[in-house]
Structures are given as structure tokens and as C-alpha cells.
Amino acid sequence: MSSKALEKYLSHYKGIDDPHLRILRLIKKKYFAERVLYPGCWIHLTPSLVFPHVVYVDFFSKMESMFSDQELLEYIGTNSVVYGESIIKVHQTDYKDGIDEKKGSFDLLISLSSGFVSQYCQSYLKTNGILFVNNEHYDAIKAYVNEKFKPIGIFTSNGKLIQQNKAIQEYFLTKKNQIITSEMVIENSKRSPSKAKYKLKKKANFYLFSKR
Asked: Which of 32, 37, 65, 83 lies deepest, with the highest CB count within 10 Å?
């Protein structure tokens, strides 16, 4: 019988059947990312199936015990494509309070439904580093209005990567064909996504940005 930690990970994220996995592999291959920062990760260890050095950040009370579960770590190790030593580091804290990591030292910043990660953790990402983000908590549009980030791609619902600049820009237009602004992001953040004041004309599953 599997440990509770492994069962929970497989139940929520499906392990090697995680739909994020193919995209993370593409990011690794295309951008040569090695060091990854994942604030607001919960128990989503899938990045460690792909990247050799991943730092996970979350404040839930059982994080450290979950991430040190032997069966869960063995599952990750067995199915990982990483060659050599794999580093999994944990910070049990709120990413908004800052973390003990070197600024500008990460190749990839992951933001999946965990608030404004791009705002609070951008300093840890190196110049030309990649932000992989969804917009469930408005962080994709937050990054779009941030001059530190440049949109470089979107993943459609069928997993297709679009990188043509004109096509990308269409995903940051409101239904009234307005370009999303900082003021609009602030207004939206006061509401749940279903009640957003400024809804996007097109919705992508995931977005890619490069840090300037």
C-alpha cells in the first residue's frame, strides 16, 4: 500500500500522466532550464521529474513531512529523466515573505494558481529566465503589465505552443478589444475569475514570459 503522500500526489497530479509534464519537458528542451523555483507548489513534485534542481515553496503545515516521504521521493527518482544528482529543496513559508535563495539565480519560475508569484518572486529569476504561468489567479496578466516581463508564448487548450508575437497579443485583449492594463488587473483581482470585470477575449491554458 502506498504512503499517504504518494497517494495524494498521484490522486491530484497523476504522476507520469500529469498534463503539465509534456509542457515542462518542452520548456527544459527549448530553454535549457536547470534551476527551478516553484512558489505555491502544494505537493506538485512533477517538475522534479524533469529538472535537476527544484526549490519548492509553500506554507501548508505538512509540507516538510510530505516532501520528505520516502515512497514519494522514490517514485520521483524512479520516473525522473534527470541524469546524476537531483536536488529537491523545500521552504515551508509564505513566498510573499521572501525566501533564503540567491537573487537572479533561477532559470525558470513556475506560477500555477498561487497568487501574484510573478510580482513577489521575479527577483529570484535571472535575466532571460522563463516564467511559466497560468491566469487562474490573474498572474499571467499581472506579468503582462509588468515591464520586467516579455510575453513569448502561450499554450492553447490542446497543448499547442504559439509564439508569433501578433497571435500572443490577442490573448491579452479584453472581450471589448482593449489591451489589458495595470488598472484592469487591479480591478479584476478584487473579484473571482468568474466575475472578472475585464474578461479576456481568448484564454490560454498556460503562458510563457521572458524576464528582461
From this structure: 37
Q: Distance (Å, rounded) from C-alpha 2 to C-alpha 196?
A: 41
* β-strand partners of 73: none
State how many domains the chain has. Answer: 1
Query: Over the stretch 151-210, which tens digit does the pLDDT of each residue have?
Result: 999 999 888 999 999 999 999 999 999 999 999 999 999 999 889 999 999 999 999 999
Is residue 31 a part of any domain in this protein?
yes
Cα distances (angstroms) measured from residue 117 to each of 94, 171, 180:
11, 20, 19
Please indicate, yes or no, if residue 162 is contained in any of the structural domains. no
Domain range enclosing 86? 4-155
Query: Is the pTM higher than 0.85?
Result: yes
96: cell is 510573499
Answer whether residue 174 is part of any domain.
no
Per-residue pLDDT of 74-83, as tens digits, reads: 999 999 999 8
